[in-house]
Amino acid sequence: MAAFALIKVAILLALSLPIVSGLTIYVLESHPGTTEQEACSAADIKKIEEMVDSALKMADETVKALANPDVAKSSAFLSLFGSKAKPADIAAQHYTPILRVLKKPSPIRDLKSIGEHDLVFTCPVEKYEKKAAKVGGVYASTRNWDVAAKKLNLIRIMPLALEADSTIDAVAKEFQAKKTFKEPVPLPFTLIHEAQHSTPIVGVHRVGDQEVGGKKMYGLNQIRNILPEDLKVKNAQNFAWFAMLAVSHSDLLTDDCKGSPAAISRDLSSQEGRLLKFKKRYAAVCKQWPSDDLAAKFKDEVE
Ligand SMILES: [Zn+2]
Q1: What is the 9 CA–ligand 1 centroid distance (Å)?
Q2: Which stretch, 50-59, 127-136, 222-231, 273-282, has highest mean pLDDT?
Q3: Torsions phi, psi for 224 (to 5 deg)
Q4: Which residues constitute the signal peptide according to the record (predicted)?
Q5: Contact 107, 27 (CB under 8 A)
Q6: What's the gap in Å between 286 CA and the centre of ligand 1?
């Protein structure tokens, strides 16, 4: 009887444990005498941990916003994902996997035993600093497992990105107040972008960086106005921007860009009449958000 009770407790405990994704997340740690070229300092590792924490917060806010049945009519959703995208698919394919897979990385001192079911954050230095100076800023680069090419699953955080804010709260507040945030773009924003390139995170829903006229589409103006609608859901940066707006401008995820079908009340002195008038006006202008002025500020190079 006692043995049976114990087995029952063991089964109940097993059922209550969270589902583990089977992927181990590491950060390559520098140590005296290291021969690794992309090892991260203690300060880098602290920033990477904060980045992961904030990216999880952003993904969580985004998944919550996408659960709103009216989000598909919002200016943020329409301008960043287009009119054919389905919020439930966007959430399930691009943000829920971040919540499921990402967690605080465990330090590791070399890459010798890294396998297909591992993902490692690394911090390249010299040669990328030179490249960054040339191209005007490379933030990060993602590599996926490829036995033939001897590639591991890596998210490589470049020196430029490590200069940026690693937490999202202050950036979101600044963006909200001033309608802009200073470059370099915040680290968690970069991570939401890189996650979209990473097979261990998003699997078959992995997307690249789309180009129009030889230019990669990173800026808010580019992804809103220039990128064709069918490519909006195939461009990593669109997912980063949408998550950013979810934490900074949640009103843009709840407005109604398709307009209210209700007629405006003749009695505009009434509360309801004023509200309807406001809604109709807002619907007419919401696709214009954000202003080109703001959008022009973002022409970042992100691999
Ligand atoms: Zn990219």
Answers
A1: 47
A2: 50-59
A3: -85, -45
A4: 1-22
A5: yes
A6: 27
**C-beta of residue 147 within 8 angstroms of C-beta of residue 181:** no
294's tokens: 């703001």
Q: Is the peptide bond before 261 cis (omega within 30 degrees of 0)?
A: no
Residue range 204-235, pLDDT digits in tens:
999 999 999 998 998 887 888 789 999 999 99
CA of 15 from ligand 1 middle (Å) equals 38
Distance between CA 183 and CA 162 in Å, rounded? 12
CATH C-level class of 21-295: alpha beta
Residues whose CB is less than 8 angstroms from the CB of residue 146 and which lie 6 or more positions away in sequence, other chains included? none
The predicted structure's pLDDT at residue 59? 98
pLDDT of 301 higher than 70: no
Task: For 155, list phi and psi in degrees, rounded to 5.
Answer: -120, 110
Cα of 196 to ligand 1 centre, how many Å? 8
Rounded to two decimals, the pTM is: 0.81
Q: How far apart are the first and last CA of the chain?
A: 61
